[in-house]
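pinning this so it doesn't scroll away 📌
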Amino acid sequence: EVLDTNGCLISDNIQLIATQVLAADMVEQIRLFPNPSRGESLLEIKMRNRTELELRIYTENGQLIQKTKLGRQQFFRGPIQLQQSGKYLIRLQDSKGRLLYTSWLFVTAH
């Protein structure tokens, strides 16, 4: 909340989206957009070297709803489609289970 020059109180809600790259030695760039989305987002991955990748998507309650092996990739671009509104945890890991990236994805109804 903020007071303007006229003494009026102004307030607003903001949404913070936490994103973390956990293996900067392996990951060059990862983008997940739009976020929030209306059900379809795009995931772009650029690794420093070809790496065996796996994408996992969880509900905000921790239920695994999607597990996709992306194969041995250095560059990847593909859609993430979620039909229900909610907050989803997106996790990218290598074949050894090392967590490379994590982000919340917010989906609003169509």
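📌 and the second one:
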Amino acid sequence: FSYAVNYRCSPACRWKGLSLGLNGKFSDDHVFLYFNNQPISGGKRLTMNGFAGYRTQLFGRNANVRLNVTNLREARGYVTTEKVNVGGTLRNVHSYPLPRSFLLTTTVDF
């Protein structure tokens, strides 16, 4: 299941030109590994990314400045431990998520 939400302020709004958004993906439990011929299932996860953008004039030309943030829900350096079912026995599986990152982009119309 993937999702995306985008909101752009109207021209009559105080924050004319501002847009905000979220997107991400929900993954349910799945078989991701076999251990001693037993399936290891797990991996339920909700990812979330966000952005803020602003349309303005830059040097007399239309421009868009946008800040993207990936992994809003993951904190840098945290290890996630999940309980997974391996042949009827619960085991701990550790995952090491990608760190949160930021990307600033600017586009200018010519």
